[in-house]
């Protein structure tokens, strides 16, 4: 099955001076221009090519990889504004992606970098973008458990912290008190379910919560100590940035964890760092 707006594995069926023709299934054949043809390709071989419709509504193939395919989010720069909407650079040189005015949440300006969801408009068949994420998310109940690891995409910043898209399906909130390290719109990372409130809203954490978090970090500290010959130049006096670089956790959690390991007799805490017993 051919998926327009995505990368397809297509067979080369004909060669020409200006490129090769690919078998595009129900769409017939489509041209892959010579500048995109990998060296040495022959008839009968397969090529991974991205398919989209050009401004004349003709199917076009390219070996360029877009920032986001249909069904994905991507961070894109607005190249210009027209009477129909904003055109963003989605990584395809020959064609920018249209974000129609009807799909814009708030006023957009040229030069701005925004998070865009790419989809196929059912009415026109065109590949377009939207910044109205509410209609895409929270369509099903949030069926997560506390401390479950999830995929996060940072989507918005608010007075409370950062809103993130959870597993591509739900909204979640990382409150400012739970933020450490550098977060920015478009960043993809792992996170954990902190709580699901009675109204169904999701609270997120960048590290495991409570005892589970401590146990997980304890194991990481012991493992790294063993790899480093039993000593790490980190302790409760180390900077938050140093601790985050080593363990992706906050200084407060690190201090509590090494305190617990010390009480268990697993480590000693010295002036210059911690040592495995």
Mean pLDDT: 91
Spatial ordering of strands, largest sheet: 3-2-1-4-5
The helical percent reads 10-25%
Order of helices and strands: EEEEEEEEEEEEEEEHEHHEE
Categorize the overall geometry: elongated
CATH superfamily of the largest domain: Winged helix-like DNA-binding domain superfamily/Winged helix DNA-binding domain
For the record, the count of structural domains works out to 4
CATH class (first level) name of the largest domain: Mainly Alpha
The structural class is: mainly beta
Largest sheet: 5 strands, antiparallel
Low-confidence stretches: none
Could you give the distance between the termini?
Answer: 60 Å
| CATH topology tier name of the largest domain | Arc Repressor Mutant, subunit A
How many β-strand runs? 18
CATH level-two architecture of the largest domain: Orthogonal Bundle
Q: Per DSSP, what share of the residues sits in E-state strands of 2 or more residues?
A: 35-45%
Rg over CA atoms: 25 Å
Question: How many alpha or pi helices?
Answer: 3
Please provide a written account of the structure:
- It is a single chain.
- This protein has 277 residues and is mainly beta.
- It folds into four domains: 7-62, OB fold (Dihydrolipoamide Acetyltransferase, E2P), CATH 2.40.50.140; 73-134, Nucleic acid-binding proteins (OB fold (Dihydrolipoamide Acetyltransferase, E2P), Beta Barrel), CATH 2.40.50; 149-205, Beta Barrel (OB fold (Dihydrolipoamide Acetyltransferase, E2P)); 210-276, Winged helix-like DNA-binding domain superfamily/Winged helix DNA-binding domain (Arc Repressor Mutant, subunit A).
- The chain is built from three helices and 18 strands.
- The protein has helices at residues 210-227, 240-247, 251-263, and strands at residues 7-16, 19-23, 29-33, 46-53, 59-62, 73-81, 85-89, 97-100, 113-120, 127-130, 149-157, 161-166, 170-175, 188-196, 202-205, 231-232, 267-269, 274-276.
- The strands form four sheets. A five-stranded antiparallel sheet has the order 3-2-1-4-5, with no helix packed on it.
- The chain is elongated, with a radius of gyration of 25 Å.
């Amino acid at each position: 099955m051919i998926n327009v707006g995505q990368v397809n594995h297509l067979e080369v069926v004909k060669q020409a001076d200006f490129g090769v023709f690919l078998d595009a299934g129900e769409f017939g054949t489509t041209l892959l221009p010579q500048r995109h043809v990998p060296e040495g390709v022959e008839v009968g071989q397969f090529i991974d090519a991205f398919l989209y419709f050009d401004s004349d509504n003709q199917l076009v193939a390219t070996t360029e990889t877009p920032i986001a395919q249909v069904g994905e989010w991507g961070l894109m720069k607005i190249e210009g504004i027209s009477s129909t909407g904003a055109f963003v650079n989605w990584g395809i040189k020959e064609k920018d992606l249209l974000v129609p005015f009807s799909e814009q949440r708030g006023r957009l300006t040229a030069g701005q970098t925004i998070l865009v969801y790419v989809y196929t408009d059912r009415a026109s068949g065109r590949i377009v973008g939207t910044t109205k994420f509410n209609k895409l998310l929270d369509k099903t109940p949030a069926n997560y458990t506390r401390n479950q690891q999830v995929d996060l995409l940072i989507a918005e910043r608010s007075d409370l912290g950062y809103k993130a898209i959870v597993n591509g399906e739900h909204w979640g909130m990382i409150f400012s008190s739970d933020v450490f390290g550098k977060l920015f719109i478009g960043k993809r990372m792992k996170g954990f379910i902190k709580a699901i409130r009675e109204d169904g809203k999701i609270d997120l954490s960048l590290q495991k919560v409570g005892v589970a978090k401590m146990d997980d970090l304890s194991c990481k500290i012991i493992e790294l100590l063993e790899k480093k010959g039993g000593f790490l130049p980190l302790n409760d006096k180390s900077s938050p940035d140093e601790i985050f670089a080593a363990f992706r956790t906050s200084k407060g959690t690190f201090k509590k964890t090494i305190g617990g390991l010390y009480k268990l007799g697993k480590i000693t805490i010295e002036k210059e760092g911690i040592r495995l017993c």
